[in-house]
Amino acid sequence: MSPRSIENDLKGKGLGIGVAAARFNSYLTDQMTERAVDRLKNLGVADEDIVLVRTPGAFELPLVARRLVDRGDIDAVICIGVVIRGETDHYEFVARQAAEGIARAGSESGKPVIFGVLTTDSTEQAVSRIGHADGYADAAVEMANTMRQIHELP
After folding, report:
1. Residue 90 a catalytic site member
2. Is the model's pTM score more than 0.70?
3. How large a percentage of the chain has pLDDT more than 90?
4. Torsion sign, CA atoms 8, 13, 16, 21
5. Residue 120: beta bridge partners?
6. I need a surface site. Which of 47, 71, 91, 93 has the fewest CB within 10 A?
7. How far is Cα 21 from Cα 108, in angstroms, rounded to an integer?
């Protein structure tokens, strides 16, 4: 008997995707959000199936992600933010809480919550990683489809 396998599926048609995007460092997060939403559309996710919610910063992303995954029409959530190291410990607290909260939103809900928060030492490092947002969209669609496939296994 051969194992049943789950196929990598990047077809977004019929999926509901939430995007929680921080306004802090908006000169970066706006570009990331635009790229992620454009990529979702290219994968077949309809405009009306994308729910975009802005938060003040990365610290607030987990709460919004959790509310989005609680909606019946959302299959996955992408969290977008940028935390740049400064001269105080603030960076450590925000980055840690964002990461832990986003992970918890996914594990507690059973729905994919994609960690699209850049944590960098400099603005230059963040700018060079803006393109990663395409991958966040791919991950959301793939994981939403994977979860559906797992649910449908006999």
Report:
1. yes
2. yes
3. 85
4. positive
5. 84
6. 47
7. 21
For the chain, give the number of residues. Answer: 154
Question: Can you spell out the DSSP letters for 67-105?
Answer: HHHHSTT-SEEEEEEEEE--SSTHHHHHHHHHHHHHHHH
The matching CATH number, chosen from 3.40.50.2000, 2.70.70.10, 3.40.50.960, 3.30.43.10, for 82-154 is: 3.40.50.960
Span 42-65, pLDDT tens digits: 999 999 999 999 999 999 999 999
**Which residue has tokens 């395409």?**
134
State the number of CA atoms in the 13 A half-sphere of 4 facing the CB.
6
- How far is 31 from 118, CA to CA, in rounded Å? 13
In this prediction, residue 133 has a pLDDT band, given cuts at 50, 70 and 90, of very high
Catalytic residue among 13, 71, 90, 96: 90
